[in-house]
Amino acid sequence: MKEWVAISQDLSLGHVTVVIVGGTGDLARKYLWQGFFQLYADQVGKGHTFSFYGGALSTTEKGTPLLFDILKELACPAELSVERCALVKDQFLHLSKYHQLKTTEDYENLSQQIKQQLGQEGIIEAGRLFYLSVPAFAYADIAEKINNTCRPPSEAWLRVVLEKPFGHNLYSAQALDKKLSGQLKEEEMYRIDHYLGKQVVSKILPFRKENKKLLDPIWNKHHIERIEIVLKETLDAKGRIQFYDQYGVIRDVLQNHLTEVMTLMLMNLPANLSNSEEILQNKLNFLASLQHVDNSNAVVGQYQAYNGEVQEELNKTKDYFSLTPTFAGVVIHVDNAQYEGIPIFMTSGKALDERVSYARVLFKSNVFCVQDPNNVQCKSKQIIFYLGHGTLQYPAILLSKNLFKPELVSSGDWKEVTEYKDVNVLGLQLSDYYIQSPVTPREAYCELISHVFFGRKDSFISAEGLLASWEFWTPLLEGLSRVFPRVYPGGVDNGNLLNFQLKGHQVAFSHEALVNVINPGAEDNFQVMQGKYRSSEMVSAWAQELVERLASDLLLAAEEAIREEGQFHLALSGGSSPVALLRALALNLYTFPWRNTHIWQVDERCVPHTESGSNFRSIHDLLLQHIRIPYFNIHPMPVHLTQRLCVEEDGGPTLYEKEIKKHVNGSSFHYILLGVGQDGHTASLFQDTKLENDEENLVILTESPNKPHQRMSLTFTAINRARRVGVLIMGKSKHELVSQLSRIKGESSKYPITKVQPKSGTLIWYIDYDALLG
């Protein structure tokens, strides 16, 4: 040990103190101590001295033997001879020590001990590395203790490694970030995702860079058919239920590991791969381009034994049922010109048939093989970033030979594989691929610990990147929180039960699950019912059937209008009512005559059209971006003029009224679709809306009791001129309103919807059974 210290002092790189908080826990035992031993073996004789502390809540008497039981089991790095390893391991054991870390005084004592050691040996301090292998709820408290008691001198660095999970959703992640940033600087925090340390993942950007000239022409929507990002596990969650039941598979795997892989595959290539700031910015730009995902874009499952494990490990009663998914399949789309329309299938689950992880880019084939289907040009074209396990058993980058021969991703530590086993990987024999693989497999934690030591931030999660990922995933998680996952038996018995498919932009299981229906509900007794409501026609059904009927009625109305006048003018209201309809129109009605349809707005909030609160933004995201409609057939309300929002002097309502009169025959829309608020308002016409000039004006500015208060709306004059008006009311929350409206005859100033009375057109109420029956 003294000889090593002397060598280090000659090189004058200083002393590094490593502290693993949670140093006797499961993660530390399996990975962290091995990783720091690898770091030490790599750095012996290169200028730094080290000391290692395993910290935990136990007393020194209890913790010391636990720590040294872990250290004795450390494996020798492959590059060391047996004799050399024995010497290095002996040194490592002498440099390692247990230290109780429970109270502020414990951290103060640790800091004093570090200072004392440095003073006695007369060496300068290079830095301190704290690895927090503890539950996330303890991060803020430990960060405060480190900040107040264990900071090194200003000339030395401080690096604090944080393990996931970093929050439970966007809001908890923001709260945690706020607490941590009050104690630590962003450059001092290393949020670790061990997937970024996997050798194949770390080479995705270098592979794309090395093969840029050949990849650029085909890395786009014209050539890529689909992308698959997969992590399958055979293990269950038993023993981890206390953690797992709070998080589930999406938070545990998709939000972090698989999202990072997707981002590296599809983000813009940075000019400099060592520029962590440019990499971060490109990641953020990509995440911002992802289309919104919700329940319609995902399926979830839960292995059969999971609920019993929850009841046992969490002491729940036999009637308790957990909705935590152990399987998820999500299809993601990117909203940019390069990747528009390419489905990204992302899936992970426990208790599946095999353990494997890969990311696959499948290319379109423009070859038709009349004969010899085994010819290489007739086979699938694909690039696979294979992370390990499965049939191949080792990490590799595979590129089918009918694409091109790739450059070696890294000549020093990667090799080209030329000896092929007789195995099939995703539809092709190994001999059909060019294969690159690491010369020496290294554990992900070893790689990342080395990166922390050298201060490399590009392999870690930034605060901005973390929050951007949570912002994307949180709406889906909130929507799925009330969804019952499909139960699957586990392992090979799953069969095709978890296969899922894409229909338009909606995702569904490919096969129906067999279930025992004990109490058939009213759903089995009704399909679509027609009748009268407030003296007008009414159509009622369960939500899905009702939306399908309304979409069908719209199609008939459009075809009739186009036959008679050559065009169809449709005005859509904002709010939550039309969401399901817009999806149905976008994804299911491929025969709708969009080229001859004009889209108008019934009402708009006074916010920029690019903001999420805008009704036009909602129409764009749910409908317009999925259909082929001429740009000049789209008529958003002009709420944003001269860099101001809904200012009377700017004349927005007058401009929109002129546009209506210019395009719409007699200012009579062919179809206006309305919703109804729980207070009885429709469009943006509220109980207190002043309507003195209603008879003259088609469009006015109004005030809403809810934020944003300013609105623009068609008037009742415009609405009542329409050929057809449909009013869509859905959900149990509207049942009381539907009952009250049914008892009112004629108009009521309390309920503006009662003023919808088309003069020569038709009014149809579309009310689902939840709203009608409660």
Descriptive overview:
Keywords: Carbohydrate metabolism, Glucose metabolism, NADP, Oxidoreductase. Residues 207-494 form the Glucose-6-phosphate dehydrogenase C-terminal domain. One of its GO terms (molecular function) is NADP binding. One of its GO terms (cellular component) is endoplasmic reticulum. With 774 residues, this protein is of the alpha/beta class. The chain is built from 22 helices and 33 strands. The strands form 7 sheets. A 10-stranded mixed beta sheet has the order 14-17-13-12-11-7-10-9-8-18. Strand 21 and strand 22 (536-541) form a beta hairpin. The longest helix is centred in the N-terminal third of the chain and has 26 residues, at 241-266.
Strand content: 15-25%
Uncertain regions spanning at least 5 consecutive residues: 1-11, 514-526
Globular, elongated, flat, extended or rod-shaped: what is the shape? elongated
Please bin the fraction of helical residues.
25-40%
How far apart the termini lie comes to 78 Å
Biggest β-sheet: strands ordered side by side in the sheet: 14-17-13-12-11-7-10-9-8-18
Instruction: Work out the number of β strands.
Output: 33
Average residue pLDDT: 90
Instruction: Tell me the radius of gyration.
Output: 31 Å
**What is the oligomer described by this structure?**
single chain
Secondary structural class: alpha/beta
Supply the number of helical segments.
22
Largest sheet: 10 strands, mixed
